[in-house]
Every structure is written in C-alpha cells, then in structure tokens.
Amino acid sequence: MGLEEWQVTVIHPATRWCAPPPGANPDARAIRLADVVLESGEVLPEVVVTFQTWGRLTPDADNAVLVEHALTGDSHVEGEAGPGQPTPGWWPGLIGPGRPLDTDELFVVAMNVLGGCRGTTGPGSTAPDGRPWGSRFPRTTIRDQVSVEAAVADALGIDAWFLVLGGSMGGMRAIEWAGGHPDRTRSALILASAAHATADQIAWGQAQNLAITSDPDFAGGDYYGTGRVPAAGLGIARRIAHTTYRSAEELNDRFGTRAQAGEDPLSDGRFAVESYLDHQAGKLVGRFDAGAYVHLTAAMATHDVARGRGSLVDVLGSYEGLLRVAAVDTDRLFPAKLSEEIVSAYGRGHVRMMRSAHGHDGFLIETEQVGAIVTETVADARRHRWPVRAAG
C-alpha cells in the first residue's frame, strides 16, 4: 500500500511550528483525529498528527516499524535539512536500503509527538475558538502520546508494529507500547531510557520548567501571537538539560577551565564551557517552542509504565514480544541501572551496553553502536515466536 492511497494530507504550518519555516516540510503527512480522550478524562476535540514514512507497507501490514523521537526531536529521523525542516535527520544512517532499518523490507514511521511543536497538536496550536491553546492546553502523559500514535496506526491499517524503538523520551513511549499495547507490539527496543521517571529526572525537569515559566515573556503560557517569546528562559532550560545530557568527564576533557578565545573570565568573559552551553541554548531557541518544552517535560515526569497495572514484573514479565534494552555506560540522567531494572522485570536477556564518552547523548552520537543493536534486534524479532491473537 502506498502512502498516496491513505486519507492523509501534506500539512502546512497553519499552526505554530518550532521555528516558522518558509514552507511546509514536503515529506510530512498528517492525520486528523477527532475527540481524543486523555488519561485525565479531558477531551481534545481535534488532534492533528504529522509524521514521515520510509519504505512501503506490505499487504499484510506486518513490516511496520515505529521510531520514537526524544524531547526536542521530531519525525525527521533521516534526511537533509530543507524547506519546513530546519535540521537534518537526528539518527542518520539507520533508515534506508541496506541499513539497519532496511526500507527494502521494512516500512518505517516516525510521528511528531502530541504536545510538541513540529506539526502535531500542542500548546501553540489553534484551539476550536480560533485562539492558540496556550495555558489552556490540557496536561497530557506518555500514555496519551502513545494512545494518539495507536489511533494513527489504526488509520494507516497497522494492527501491530513489527518493532517500536526509541531513546530517552522516545524510549518511554516505546516501553509504553510494550506495556500498554502488548498485543500490538511484536518487539520493542528501549535505548537510554527507563520504565518510570526518577526523582532525579523530575528534579532536573522542574528546574528547567521553572526557568521558562519564570521568564516574564512566558506570560503564563499565553505568549502566542503577542510577538514575545520566552527565549531567555528556554535558553537557560537548555543549558541545564544539556549539562545532564553529557558526562562530567567529557566536559572536563573538552573544556577544562579554559577561557573562551578572546575572553577573560576575570573580566566578565566566559569560560569555554559556558560559550559551548550558550551555543547549544541558541540553537534550541531557534527551532523549538518553550510551551511545548514545558508540556513535554511535565509529561516525562509522570511516566510510569506500571501505573495502575500492578508491579513492573506484572507488566513486563507477561509481555510475550521481544524486549531489547540498551544503555550508555556514562549516562548520568538515565543510568544503566534503570535499563537493568527493565530487563530484570522482563526476565529474559541482558542489557546491551553502549560505550561512549558523551553521556546520555551517546544514544544519538554513537550511531555505529546503535546501528549494530538495531540490526541485531530486527534479526532476533524475525525469529521470535510472537503469539498472534484474533482481532477483538
């Protein structure tokens, strides 16, 4: 089945994008969902979900792979920057003919997350009354994000994913697929993530969100359409976050206490590491929305695949699909013990350890190691005996 045969449209930026592009991303497609019921019981009357695809779906729809992006990522997993797409693909080399996600055999889908700002409905989108949602946008959870993805899968004719994979926040959604929709998830690959948020992650997230919400230009979340953007707050949040994404050893090795070229820290100049964080902050402010950042960070804080379902062993021990877990040895935000907890609850296999000097961001940077793990997972998923249940 070709994408042109589905009831989808090319989405144009009628709602707020992270950085307004000169034109829509020509590779993006969109599906509109009506009356989306959230975990809280609130209802979103309409949700537009934008996504990209690679490869072709088989007639039996048994070759579909879902790639889940992290907090400030998007559906543009592979490809160059261009119109409507300010950044290149964030996992280069993984999708395509002969690659780990081989599009000669697999149909790969990546969706922009609910509550974000890359085309899928979020705080900056237009509400039914014609005004931006802003502070009125209801709080959503990782489960809500996955429920929306499940509705899109329904619309695309995908009863079950051959594989769901993602890292960090994307890994939270991947494990939620396995725990919350086990009959629709033949295999899952969780990279640098966790089965639940930790107090440490929640604490770092609170500091980031307070940096944004304390910016006067945030205006309580209702800055959309005012010409004001809480750039200072978002920049501070990114500096805090990026420090947790990298290892202390890497920062010390790369920068030490060196001054930035041409500047003197004794005379109000910057250290080299401060210049580096300023650069990272500026890049994010140029492409991401502060309201979406606050919303998604809050969603991550409530992540717990076992909430209301018993123990983690109850949830994952009964999962009959293939569950593969990988960690980064220097990750201080999602330390390896969180991956070990997942494997222990599942009761089979072991953690695949990625070696990296880069900390949490290793799952994005070490593409060769990630590619090897993905290749192994795809091969093992083909051999795994997954029970096929009758519909209904």
Describe this entry's structure for a reader.
- The chain is an alpha/beta fold and 392 residues long.
- The chain folds into two domains: 3-197 and 304-383, Rossmann fold; 200-300, Rna Polymerase Sigma Factor, Chain: A.
- Helix content is 32%, strand content 14%.
- The protein has eleven helices and ten strands.
- The protein has helices spanning 142-155, 169-180, 199-213, 231-245, 248-254, 272-285, 290-301, 312-317, 336-346, 362-365, 367-383; strands at residues 29-37, 43-54, 64-68, 95-96, 101-102, 107-111, 163-167, 187-191, 322-328, 352-354.
- It has an eight-stranded mixed beta sheet with strand order 1-2-6-3-7-8-9-10, with helices on both faces.
- Helix 9 (336-346) links the parallel strand 9 and strand 10 (352-354).
- Helix 1 crosses helix 2 (169-180), helix 3 packs antiparallel against helix 4 (231-245) and helix 3 runs antiparallel to helix 7 (290-301).
- Mean pLDDT is 91; it is low at 1-23.
